[in-house]
Amino acid sequence: MDVWMSLLPPPLWDTPLFNLAIPGSHNSATYSLDLDHSSPVDLTQPDLLQKLDKYLKPVIRPFVYKWAVAQELTMAQQLDSGVRYFDLRVAHRPNDMTSDLYFYHGVYTIVTVQTVLMEICQWLDLHPTEVLILSFSHFLCLSPELHCLLISTICRIFTHKLCPTTAPLTLRSLWSHRFQVIVSYQHGLASGHSHLWTHIPYWWANKSRADHLIQELELRKQQGRPGGFFVTGMNLTVDLKYICSHPTQSLKDLVMSTYPTMLGWIQDQSPGSGPDSLNIIAGDFVSEWNLSSAVIGLNHKLLTAEV
Q: Is 212 considered catalytic here?
């Protein structure tokens, strides 16, 4: 799984990446969320929750944590399992006098953005045929100066691995130029950088039931796929009412109870350029329900269909 791109049949090496089926992870860095209370819950959370976390942290934080964690594997481990798209939500923590940046989802991570990107780069050094898509979005409390710092950090770490926006997006072409990283950056500053791609659309159903999620995605498919990269989010969403009515459960419990339904739907899909084809398919706890294997396997359908 760690070299699945190089193992694709040669006819697919000339297929645009946005016509391939690519496994991704949702809220990719949440394996490192802060359970030890050294930072507050993130500023997108309701005011009441922020106050409760401030004064009743030992009680509230574990409750928030179990619904915020969406991945248990590190980036390198996710890459080893076949993931080639990362959903990266970047924040500057409140009252932090440093310029360090973190990821967040309900809670901020312990590891910094720079540390994670260096880990990814080291993995890519050992896997020169693999291509990765990094989607930076949902920026929280980043000033223009911090955006510039983040962009310079991305460029400094990945250097020649960064794929420019003018490059042909086929495996054969990327391999010939040794490009391995496609960076999507959801901010206006992206337009001024030749190595930052525009935001990749993400189909988010905002449903807590698998059947409702699938119904929403089928409606999206009827409207036609975007022209380039896009993500089909196989991730369930819960609100405070749902959480309070399921006090003994966690997000992982929910995912594991519904993955057979979602996996069955994925296996019926096809990549390609058709109006109802899919591209990147992202989910939570990707290693727990063989998401990568199911998604990668869809590419063999392209061998008997026109791309």
A: no
